[in-house]
Amino acid sequence: MNDRKLLLIILDGVPYANWRRYFGNLEGWVAAGQARMWKMRAVLPSISASCYASIHSGVPPQVHRAWGNEFVRRLEMPDIFSEVTRAGGLTGAVAHSFWSEFFNRAPFDMVRDIEYDEPGASPISHGRFHTMTGYGHANQMTPADPDLFATLTMLCERKGIDYGMLHTCTLDSMGHRFGHDCTEMDKACCAMDVMLQPYLERWRKAGYEVIVTADHGQSMRGHHGGAGEDQQDFALYYFGPAEGPPPDTVLDQLSLAPTILTRLGVPVPETMRAAPFLSA
Ligand SMILES: [Zn+2]
User: Fold this and answer.
1) Cα 88 to averaged position of ligand 1 atoms, centre (Å)
2) Segments of the chain assigned E as strands
3) What 8-state DSSP symbol labels residue 268?
4) What confidence score (pLDDT) does residue 70 get?
5) Whether the predicted model's global pTM rises above the 0.90 cut
6) What is the distance, to the nearest Å, from the Cα of residue 117 to the centroid of all Cα atoms in its chain?
7) Do residues 264 and 243 lie in contact, with contact meaning Cβ atoms separated by under 8 Å?
8) From the CA of 167, how far away is ligand 1's center (Å)?
9) Which residues are found with C-beta within 5 Å of the ion, ligand 1?
């Protein structure tokens, strides 16, 4: 490992158009020359669990076999957490419990796994998870996003993690509930963009490179899982010094894992076949 640190912030289910029209602060950093933005395309199926597994393992659903949200289990192949830990780094996750099951252990035990600190012993050194148990159309059961941002910040500042991943379902749940042509979504995206900023600034000042992105998009009716730009495409914002491809490049979601490992100076396992999109 080198001495770089990186945070991956995943806002679940935000289609490309919403990033560009509603996230005024993120777009402002790009306009000011402080961040880079590319379009990224999700794997197929563009279902949440399938995408989580691909984001971190760098292999497609046809290899990891998480065909949908009903197929969550401990994955067999290397991933970002396992490789950073193997290289001697500390990892952290603030996320839905699916992430703990995919990359640490399954099934999820509410008491054992809701919060754990196992540096050196588990792929995820410091985990803080939530299950959204009881989730439905009328009740999102998502935590407040500033609580999640603050929890990740605590792991950075108290535990000294080298790599951290945060995932929140708020906007995905809003999309499933309201769709995307409505004032509810306008305001929810704007609120997320504003609430993120003080933490983003704090992470950058602490020396972290930051990537803010989604796992997949959504159709105007609030669906995802299939092919097509609305369901598959989203924006990726990068805050850091690395060089990247031309602005009109459409990034492959499978390149995220090898890109992050490369930035951290961690060897990329041979299972991750995509080329990194940021310079080493
Ligand atoms: Zn999702």
Assistant:
1) 30
2) 5-11, 36-41, 91-96, 115-117, 126-130, 163-168, 208-213, 233-239, 250-252
3) P
4) 95
5) yes
6) 21
7) no
8) 9
9) 12-13, 48, 172, 215
